[in-house]
Amino acid sequence: TAKQQGKAGFVRYAEGMGEPVLAHMQLGSELRRALDNNEFRVVYQPIVRLGTGRLIGVEALVRWHHPARGVVSPAEFIPAAERTGLIVPLGRLVLRETCRQAAMWLADFGPDALREAGLNVSARQLHDPDFVADVADALAESGLPNERLVLEVTESAVLRGQQISRALFELDRMGIRLALDDFGTGESSLSLLRAFPAAIVKLDKSFVDGIEIDDGNPAAADARQAVARAVIQLARALSLDTVAEGIESPEQVAVLRELGYALGQGYHLAEPMSADGISRLLARQAITVRSVI
Ligand code: C2E
Ligand code: MG
Ligand code: MG
Ligand code: MG
User: What domain of life does the native source organism fall in (predicted)?
Assistant: First the structure.
């Protein structure tokens, strides 16, 4: 293991953690400095209707523009931000920026151009006593209608012990839509979905990978598609929207559409981009719609 490979005085990797222990201690103070220095930016990945390619929503994803290391991916710093608690101010920044930006798109392009904007919420944020008030403030200040905000949570964030976080029920009552992210990867996905006020399930990329493989063996193809099929059936029974994540090819789009997935997200459809990039897509979409009418 990585632990055994480590030598005294060198960076050692803790079991089950994706990053070096020593680096993570530095990362804490680096993150604080980066927050003060305004080094975080939000990019947006389109969520599109698979039949038409039309933009339905966006997911906000944070990026760290490190002065020396360049753009750092959230996989590298979100875990440390959670451990240090810095995810709370960082998450608030993403929340406010996303609401502000989504309200601007709404004002510029009208109510039908973009249905909703989503962002990721970590466990630490969800259990922060001020979280619901932070969300309410961000919505009120931006003027974004509550039902246009989607908060994406993972199964592990939803549960605290055996309890579902109370904040989720409050957010649901406020009309905010909750999405269960990375769906299918957790241990109790199915029972959780029944108990939790979700509006959307996001089929994890791991169930999209390989879904299109055609090796001439229908039984093997059925097995690869089994989770995606089960999830869409469950979502229909519970009247939830579905989004298939991590779509990387047109063949995957075809299989997912056949299974009944209406919405998708992935590099094949569109990569995460700046707010300006989304504005350009919305402008182009408006022209297309007008020329069709
Ligand atoms: P996620 O919420 O599941 O977001 C989807 C991730 O998959 C994003 O990675 C996105 O860029 C990537 N992705 C989208 N389409 C494809 C594809 O076709 N192929 C592949 N290989 N990847 C694709 P990203 O931006 O690196 O974010 C990683 C994770 O970090 C997110 O997973 C989310 O859990 C977390 N994260 C990102 N931004 C935030 C944030 O503002 N707050 C919190 N708490 N977590 C965040
Ligand atoms: Mg997400
Ligand atoms: Mg996801
Ligand atoms: Mg994911």
Answer: Bacteria
- Low-confidence spans in the chain with pLDDT less than 50: 1-17, 21
Quote the ipTM score.
0.98
Mind listing the pLDDT tens digit for each residue in 194-238? 888 999 999 999 999 999 998 899 898 888 999 999 999 999 999
Pairing between β-strand 159-160 and β-strand 163-164 as defined by DSSP bridges:
antiparallel
Query: Quick check: CB of 74 below 6 Å from ligand 1?
Result: yes
CA proximity to 74, closest of 276, 279, 272, 281: 272
Q: Whose CA is nearest to atom 37 of ligand 1?
A: 61
The pLDDT of residue 286 is: 82
Q: Which residues surround ligand 3, an ion (CB under 5 A)?
A: 181-182, 245
What would the pLDDT profile of 251-276 be if each residue is shown by its tens digit? 999 999 999 999 999 999 999 999 99
Give the strand pairing for 177-183 and 200-203.
parallel
Q: Is 94 in the pocket of ligand 1 (CB under 6 A)?
A: yes
Query: Does ligand 1 have an atom closer than 6 angstroms to the CB of 264?
Result: no
Q: Which amino acid residue places its CA nearest to atom 43 of ligand 1?
A: 120
SS3 label, residue 114: coil
Indicate the DSSP class of residue 9: T
* C-beta of 204 in contact with ligand 1 (< 6 A): no
Helices then strands, counting H and E runs in the chain, come out as 12, 11
